[in-house]
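Archive entry. Fields below.
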Amino acid sequence: MTREARRVWITWIVLLLLAGLTFALSFIPSDPFATPVALGIAMVKAVLVVAVFMEFLDARATPRLAFVVSLLLAAILTTLATVDVLTRRVPALPPG
Amino acid sequence: MSTVEVVVPLSRPAGDSYLEVPRGFRSWLVTTDHKRIGVIFLFATSAALVLGGVFALLLRAELLTPGRTIVGPLAYNRFFTLHGVIMVWLFMIPSIPSAFGNFLLPIMLGAKDVAFPRLNRASVYVYAAGAVIVLSGLVLGGADTGWTFYPPYSGRTPTSVAPIALGVFVLGISTIMTAINFIVTTHTLRAEGMGWMRMPLFVWTIYATSIIQLLATPVLGMALLLVALDHAFRLGVFDPTVGGDPILYQHLFWFYSHPAVYIMILPAMGVVSEVVCTFARKNPFSYTAIVVATLGIAFVGFLTWGHHMFVAGMSELDVGIFGALSMFVAIFSAIKVFTWVGTLYRGSISLDAPLLYLYEFLFLFGVGGMSGVALASPSLDVHWHDTYFVVAHFHFVMVGGTITAWLAALHYWFPKMFGRHYPQRVAALGTLLVFMGFLGTFVPQFLLGNAGMPRRYYDYPPEYQALHVLSTMGSWALGGGLLLTAVYLVAALRGGRRAGTNPWGSRSFEWDTPSPPPQHNFTEQPVIARGPYDYAREEG
Amino acid sequence: MTETETHLQAHFADLAKQTHAARFGMWTFLGSEVLFFGSLFALYASYRAEYGDAFSRAVRHTDLLLGSANTAILITASFLVALAVGELRAGSDRRAAALLLAGAALGVAFMALKGIEYAHHFRDGIYPGVHYRYAALPEEGAKIFFTLYYLMTGLHALHVVGGIVLLLALAWMARRGRFTARWHTPAELGGLYWHLVDVVWIFLWPAFYLLH
Amino acid sequence: MLALRQAPEGIARAEAADSTSALAGLGEVGDALNQALRRILFLPEQASTFAARVDQLHYFELGLMSGIAAVLGCAGIWFAFRYRRRAEGERTPRVVAPLWLELGIAGGLLGLFLFWWLIGYRQYLHAKVAPAGALEVYVTGKQWMWEFAYPRGRNSQGVLFVPAGRPVKLLVTSRDVIHSFYVPAFRIKQDAVPGRYTTIWFQARTAGAYRVFCTELCGVGHSRMWGKVVALAPGDFERWLAGWNPDAADLRRLGIDLDGVLPGDVPADEEEADLAREGQRVAAVRGCLRCHTVDGTPYIGPTWRGLYGSVETMTTGERVFVDEAYITESMMDPLARIVAGYPADMPSYQGLISAPETAAIIEYMKTLWGPVPPDSVAPPPPGGVPR
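PREDICTED_STRUCTURE:
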């Protein structure tokens, strides 16, 4: 069992635990923090897969830059489209 | 006009250039040589330009008189849709990157070929497949939704929207392949001694264009896939009867389409940088300014798509954000124009055809860019949006900018690609005809836009007719100019004077190999010891 | 011929540069995939902002058990492929081939569960777009939710099918001994693609099964 | 999010005070200059309070940019002459731009552009946020015509009657695809998005008639989807609201030239007009009009008004363009494709109608263009007004 293999095994177990945690948390009724928590855990799992399974950390700088820039642009598209939907002024309701 | 004729004996018999070795038509079909792929793309995109131009002339002919002139409203809507689709995706996007980028990038970098030659060959096949699908849509009658495919109309019209949308999706795949190839080539295959700040400016612009192509095209692919699904199976994500919001489609479409206009103009800027340095025999006024502006356009270009939607019903806050961001991206183009004019200062200028096209580019792209800044101020856009002012703006930037630079590139690298010279005098006449034709066609459209003539109108009130007639006559002159250019260039392919290794006396690296270059670009592996633009006197 | 000559392409100086170029090309391709799915996530976020409560009601009508099982399956499949690449580096081709096959098998399991889930939805009358016939959730927010559900999970499923084919090909190449300790780039790139498919599902799972 | 939603109102309200335009400040000279520039640039008349202000920004940007372009152009041409190549292989000095020059140009231009954005954005907010107490009118775009609905139940087609000198707020929506309500003389435009209300307001300065265009591609009839805005003196407008239906003569007495604004119906030239009349006669003789009405009211068969060029959904769900081919096929083999919702009992006219008569009928159907009388006042968009 080399050092890399051990790292992969540990990551696998952590990922399954996190999935179980999210699964359990989803049963709390009407929890205001449900969305940020679930997304936070999903983010952690994604970072784990990218960092360990995809060996993102020891890849060279330029491939990492390309991937991060694409994530950034996807975030910009999502944010500005959602801001547009949220800040549309609702016109006054028709009189009578 | 003095013609530059550096008498250089032919460095080697013309027998073993990439055009002759390996022989046979079949070798062209399966070639992975980046130079041949560049030439294939050059002829394919030129054919697309001719086809798109035919539709343009039909449109202008129809608008000679209000009401019906040659075709009915449905056919007219189909003509401008096909004119848009063919020109944008079959010509403008691939023209300079895939044709000249493929040919010159490895040579300028001192590499034998691009990073993934087989992927490069695949991009030719995928481009051909996409073109066939789009043309099958043409044969089935073509769509009548405009090249923007706005739902819900694109979902409701029975015209063949799905084939054209899928065809463009496949063309997008070909663009992503080329983009990946060029990015990796620029990073990993630079010759020994070529740091990032010693690369020719054309390589910088192709690199920046590839970044935009890589990151913007997928979003277009998704938008058109949704349009095709909506049209074929009524699977409406943007269909208001199902609760969808058509404005979200516009967000996806313009998230691609604004960076797409920078895909079209950045390579043209690269060509202009090369041409101005060679024909003024001078180092660029500021190499770093052009590089910073190129990367600035590539990244800030992704933030400004909302200025296409000021009146579409977007929230006022977003209009403010996008308006301000659009102003940032404008200064990068302005800096470049100033730097090019600065490069001419204290140069040694020889007015050959490429430089004439360059002057045209500076004037037309200048006016186009400035009308763009005016369009980006929100209150003026409320009046101008979707009128002929916008049509004139983007034709000034696309035709006046990219096609003029494409013609300059064609003339500048013609000796290197085909080993022949084009006729100087006829070329100068060609530039004049193209310039006059262009102004005659599109200046009246600025005025039509001010007068409130909406875009994509088959029929119009009689007061606008005078300007339309002027514009149509201008389009004939522009068509004539391009035809003349095509004729003498094709003739020069065989009949032109043989060109030496460096007919323009340029210091850029692609002029160190014989023309046309051998199959593996260089007789011996080049080591870069100087910058690409050092024309300076020893004492500086 | 030594190890490198067989795999070194003419225009690269050495194998290290060629491998770096291949990985760099793959990561840029993954960047374009991120934006391809990203545009759909942008649509999901915008529609969730517009039809907040309709979406949260609709999430209760998706099959949480099948979704969660699929999450575990894909995480494990991703883990197996990561192990396989490790094995190739250690030089044991046979074990790597077995792991790749196991990964592909889990992919098939994922598709099976996905098929069952779709069948349940079709039985209830949940179809995408205008064909939506689900009496329990008549409002438009639900129509958009399920249209996005089919689009996003469908596109992801297509990518899983592609991944299965890729893993089978890599397993076959590993079994035939085509890979060595120094040169196994195709397996690495296949692994990167497969892990990205897993990452996309990691975000699809909460979006369609948990966030109510 | 509420704060973000109300922010535009705040900005617009504070800014509405100084609505006097800069040029007007110069009095006579300013006005003459304004009219001269407007005529040179082919701009339509400035019929709304908003128009004059937008044009000023237009002249300001145009003037400054032409100045910069002229300087650059002359420099370029002067360099071409002054530094023309005198000898072959001539070497040139290495000149590199000082950093302060590059940053100066960039900073200066950025400041100028952002200044224009500031003016432009404030004017945009001014146009989007209606002052309180504005008259609200519902504008509904429908494939190839405009309908207007007023608060006290009055509605009208194709012509928007408004009081001059009072702010009018438009709530714009669409019943099918995206249209765009554009009045060049008022310099305002607003897309009509199906399923939503979007708003814009204007204030006509004087009584008059102004043209309305649709500026978002909406199908075959997009280039004929015209309308008119008639601004009446407040007194006349009240009379109109009470039910007065002025015809062109009445309006001309009020100094409003209704017909001069836009050309009449499809300018069919002489030869096509005869063919249409012949088509009408053949349709009557052959008994087509027994099942198909021409005024838009549904009957046994689909009505012919507005049918040509529209998209119909067949019983099989297939969508078809009603063009020459479909009409001919429906005459010769009517049972091939039936419009959804209609009985399949049309007799075939194969052999009974000659080709010229078929062409005449089609020509007649083409003239049945234009507004379909509404079955009701402009209903709120599908799905009701969003929350």
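CURATOR_NOTE: Chain B touches chain A through 23 residues (CB under 8 Å).
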